[in-house]
Design goal:
The protein contains twelve helices and no strands. The protein is an all-alpha fold. It starts with a helix and ends with a helix.
Length: 216
């Protein structure tokens, strides 16, 4: 299943400069954050949300893995993503703000409660980083990350309610996404991401992906 299309279109900030975001978008994110926090407020509600979310997400396992870690390099991991961020992306596919016939069809059959529980389920799963095969390349990637990415994605590349988590992500997926931002391919038109990716050559993109995929 191509949750890959939605989650990490997701390399991009879903609003890196929040003060400049439309008020409606800020309100939407805040509403989801309040609902997530309410479910996380007690062990009982959190556990039930996780259990219900796992049931709702059963159709995702074929591509994204039983534990939210994909076995396919071009499909992103969902484990460890911020549940507010996930919920926002799910809703965008459900109402057409993000377009993919396959994804939209799947999301539309889910009630909002199911979508929220699914986001909490994936957010609670452990990330499984891939040890760097090329330490030199990973060190170079760390330098590029600190220079160009840290301001939005955070010191540990774990994102937040508006920003995708990159730590522990699939290396091929990261490389493909950055190259699409660089070429401004359809579906990768974020202004901030495209301007950053435009300054990266193929080796720099690979080094970034090598570094990020190795982070816990």
């Amino acid at each position: 299943m191509l949750l890959s299309v939605w989650l990490l279109a997701g390399l991009a900030p879903a609003g890196a400069n929040e003060p400049n975001r439309p008020e409606a978008a800020r309100s939407e994110v805040s509403r989801y954050e309040a609902r997530v926090n309410a479910l996380l407020s007690s062990p009982e509600t959190w556990q039930k949300a996780r259990q219900d979310g796992k049931k709702a997400a059963f159709f995702c396992a074929n591509c994204h893995g039983e534990a939210g870690v994909s076995t396919l390099g071009h499909v992103p991991n969902l484990a460890g993503q911020n549940p507010v961020y996930l919920m926002t992306q799910i809703q965008k596919f459900g109402d057409g703000r993000r377009r993919d016939d396959f994804m939209s069809g799947l999301i539309k059959v889910l009630k909002e409660e199911d979508r929220l529980n699914m986001a909490i389920y994936y957010g609670a799963l452990d990330v499984r980083p891939t040890p760097a095969k090329n330490p030199r390349l990973a060190r170079e990637g760390q330098l590029h990350y600190r220079r160009a990415c840290l301001g939005c994605h955070g010191q540990q590349a774990r994102g937040g309610r508006d920003i995708a988590r990159l730590a522990g992500q699939q290396k091929p997926y990261l490389m493909d996404s950055l190259k699409k931002y660089r070429s401004r391919a359809e579906g990768r038109s974020d202004r901030v991401m495209s301007s950053i990716a435009a300054k990266l050559n193929d080796e720099q993109i690979e080094s970034l992906a090598e570094y990020l995929s190795s982070l816990p």
